[in-house]
Design a protein that fits this description.
- This protein is mainly α.
- It is built from eleven helices and four strands; from the N terminus they run αββααααααααβααβ.
- The strands form two sheets. Strands 1-2 form a two-stranded antiparallel ribbon. A two-stranded antiparallel sheet has the order 3-4.
- The N and C termini lie far apart (108 Å).
Length: 328
């Protein structure tokens, strides 16, 4: 009897071991099959990636898509009528560096395109009337992306004026008013600076560089290095990139479809219909002023961002032009 029990025990043990072996073999087979499918699927996905634009907003409002590949750069490019020496290998590499960053910085670049329809006509008109090359509208893009931005160093507005420089070039800056936020007035102030810099350096390229590092800082580098061309100067990293960023922005805006940016006109921001009110006295309460002119405080501040408080004190009788939405 004992012998029979021992045999039964050995048989159960053998069956248990055999079961574990079969289970293990099954798991291995399943794993191998799964791996085979995964590798096959991956291979298919690699071969089926379509050639798509860098960033495209089409008529059906598709999401921007990205393709990483080599850019076809132009053989030549100029900025403010002055040639960028792309035949020099280091200059071409620096230009390509900024092109890659600008083209593939999709969200920021798309916003600049969308805002340009509203703001470029305003800026272009002032540049022309002031005798400043049209290409300087791209300086405004690289400074603020066509917005009333505030930098960590408290440079403000489309043209990123510091308070001292803004006042130097005729902008009113106080508790109630900050004309750095006024696109038209700040553009005229920027033109005055650029014309002063051009008169000093005899080059619009150097004038642009000085907008970043200051006239005195650039003049010191020119004297120390005994060079008169921006492209031959060794400058701090930000200024060394500055003109190339302008050039890359110009190239992209001049040839958007070449670099994969396609927009329909209705996808670009347009200027709202507005009316203008001239005042030469104080406005003690801008909320009441907005209501009395058929608009809201929110819209009044939206259209006049240079108004910085809830009142406009005007003891001198200065004439201000306020913008309000056009009455329907």
């Amino acid at each position: 009897m004992m012998q029979i029990k021992k045999e039964l025990h050995r048989m159960r043990l053998a069956l248990t071991i055999l079961s574990f072996i079969l289970i293990a073999i099954g798991l291995v087979l399943v794993f191998l099959l799964f791996q085979g499918k995964t590798i096959h699927t991956h291979a298919e996905s690699v071969t089926e990636i379509p050639s798509i634009p860098t960033a495209e907003i089409s008529a059906n409002n598709s999401i921007p898509l990205i393709r990483f590949d080599f850019l076809s750069l132009p053989d030549s490019i100029s900025l403010a009528g002055e040639a960028v020496p792309l035949t020099q290998h280091d200059i071409r590499e620096r230009f390509e560096f900024e092109m890659l960053i600008t083209v593939y910085k999709n969200a920021t670049t798309i916003l600049a395109f969308k805002r340009s329809k509203r703001w470029f006509p305003v800026i272009e008109s002032i540049l022309e009337s002031e005798g400043v090359p049209d290409d300087f509208k791209y300086l405004c893009v690289i400074e603020s992306n066509l917005s009333n931005a505030i930098s960590p160093s408290n440079a403000v507005g489309f043209w990123q004026f510091l308070e001292g420089t803004g006042k130097q070039y005729g902008l009113e800056i106080n508790e109630d008013v900050d004309e750095r936020y006024d696109v038209e007035k700040s553009t005229r102030a920027a033109c005055k600076y650029l014309k002063d810099a051009y008169k000093k350096f005899g080059s619009w390229t150097l004038a642009a560089a000085s907008y970043n590092m200051g006239m005195s800082g650039l003049e010191k580098q020119i004297e120390e290095q005994q060079e008169s061309s921006y492209y031959d100067l060794r400058l701090n990293q930000e200024t060394a990139r500055y003109v190339f960023r302008m050039a890359a922005t110009k190239e992209l805006f001049m040839n958007p479809q070449k670099y994969g940016y396609t927009f329909t006109s209705d996808q670009l921001y347009t200027a709202p219909e507005v009316n203008y009110i001239e005042v030469n006295s104080s406005i003690p309460n801008l909320v009441e002023f907005a209501k009395s002119n058929g608009t809201t405080y929110k819209m009044l501040k939206e259209l006049n961002p240079w108004l910085r408080s809830k009142q406009l004190r005007n003891a001198s009788g200065k004439k201000y032009r306020l913008v309000i939405p056009a009455h329907k």
